[in-house]
Amino acid sequence: MTLNDLVRLGAELALGVEPVGIPPQVLETPIYKGRLLAFEVQPGLMLSASDVTYICNQNFAVEMEPALVCGIMLTGSPVASDVEGYGRFVRYPHQVSLMGFDSPVRYSTPLRQGERFRSTGFVLRPPFFDRFADDVADDGLAALRELVEGGFRTAIITHSPCITEIARSCLEHPYTGQLEKLFLESKALAFVIEAAQALKDERRLVALLGRREYDRVMYAREILDADLVGTPTTMELSRRVGINVTTLQANFKIVFGKTIFAHVREQRLMMARVLLQEHRLSVAEAGRRVGFSRASAFSAAYRKHFGHPPRSEFPRTRRTHPI
Question: Given CB 3.0 to 4.6 Å as the disulfide criterion, which of 8, 95, 196, 216 pairs with 140?
Answer without folding.
Answer: 196
